[in-house]
Amino acid sequence: MQSLYLECLSGISGDMTVAALLDLGADEAILRRGLDSLHVDGYTIEISRVKKNGIEAADFHVILDGHHHPDLHEHDHHGEHHSHHDHGEEALHGHGHHHVHRNLHDILELIEKSQISSQAKELAEKIFHIVAQAESKAHGVPVEQVHFHEVGAVDSIVDIVGAAICLDNLNIQRVYCSALREGTGTIRCAHGIMPVPAPATAHIMEKYHVPVQITDNQGEMVTPTGAAIVAAITHQFGAPATMRIQRVGMGAGKRDYPNANILRAYLIDEEEDEYQDMVEVLETDLDDMTGEQMGYAMERLFALGAKDVHYTPIFMKKNRPGYQLTVLCDPSCREDCIREIFKNTSAIGLRHQTQKRTKMKRELHDVETKLGKITIKHCEFGEIHKNTVEYERAKELADAKNISLEDVYQVAESEMQA
Asked: What tens digit of pLDDT does each residue of 90-135 get?
């Protein structure tokens, strides 16, 4: 399976993402044709090679025709300017500007009418929805009233749609992303000074549980567009347990920092093992819940998609009897399970870790018996095979035939051996 790992040691922005994906091998001609089909005027694209701290990287630069506002660019070390998505009264309401404004509907219509692939359209629209919702929350206005100022919206459209085109062109099936490194201090925007991270960026990090590390670098390292791209495409935060690196792409930011201002992207083949996968293990200790309460919590966790939930009797401090709750779940539903544990148990803290799991391959099939159809689970690990009777179907037959559950199991086992 071809996957992507984004190493965001210098943060992330839209132009850095496109540059890194082009460096990985995304087709520049397909990118340009796709962007041309948007029929958005007022810009040119410059793709070049630059060096950051002696490291060569690709540079993707959107040059706006006659609408360059240096004061709007200088705060963003990546080269994206925040005025493109409604930071401040002027951008939201058009005060002091005479440019056409686009709302989310207008931009989605541009994307829908373009000639890019359906997958790229879907991803670009998803990213724009994330940005618009974050801006809506930051400014306290409905999403429908968020307007993208034309000067900034142009490079925002190019960066977001460009990233979607490149990801689709590379046929990325799964994305891993490191924690995002962000700067500190403030940034200057069209309407004044704002803290880092910018409000919209912070809202995206909050809503999508994006891990972030604050550095000593002064200035913005993660832009709203960059955060939205991460939120839209990431399946798992952190590097995969094992991987084979096929290619490395370097996407340059615009500012210089003590560390190389580069987004590093790895095109990888994961070492797939049909008998192994990754699971999240969540644990917490409980000593003040009834059996009914613990049973309800177990039901809710299974309903959320937990692979397994169990309680282990333990002795806690001062020899208090209690139970250790253990939950196994897919990494993608870890946060939901954590919230459910806090919501429906007395836990005020828990432990969690990602573990590699080795398992037998499993498949269900029905076996005809003299009692009717019985569902069998067949498990295989190389030359080792096991068959077990599925309880729920066996229970139904026992009730329907008014016989014992053990009788159903004996019939099923005799049929499996026949």
From this structure: 233 333 333 456 788 889 999 999 999 999 999 999 999 999 999 8
Is residue 224 reached through a cis peptide bond, with omega within 30 degrees of 0 on the bond before it?
Answer: no
Q: Which residues contact 333 (CB under 8 A, 6 or more apart)?
A: 304, 305, 306
Whole-angstrom Cα distance, residue 152 to residue 97? 12
Domain ranges of the chain: 2-270, 276-358, 361-417
Domain 276-358 has CATH 3.40.50.1820: no
**Cβ(35)–Cβ(124) under 8 Å?**
no
pTM of the predicted protein model: 0.66
Rounded Cα gap, residues 336 and 30, in angstroms: 38
Within 13 A of 268's CA, how many CA atoms are on the CB side?
A: 22
CA distance 266 to 194: 33
Spatial CA neighbour of 87 closest among 185, 208, 183, 197: 197
Q: How far is residue 343's CA from residue 310's CA, in Å, rounded to a whole number? A: 17
- For 11, residues 6+ apart whose C-beta sits below 8 A from its C-beta are 77, 78, 180, 181, 182, 183, 220, 221, 222, 223, 226, 253, 263
136-168 pLDDT, tens digit per residue, is: 888 888 888 787 654 457 888 999 999 999 999
The runs of H, that is alpha helices, within 140-174 are 150-169
The sheet carrying 262-270 orders its strands as 43-52, 55-64, 243-252, 262-270, 2-7, 174-177, 236-237
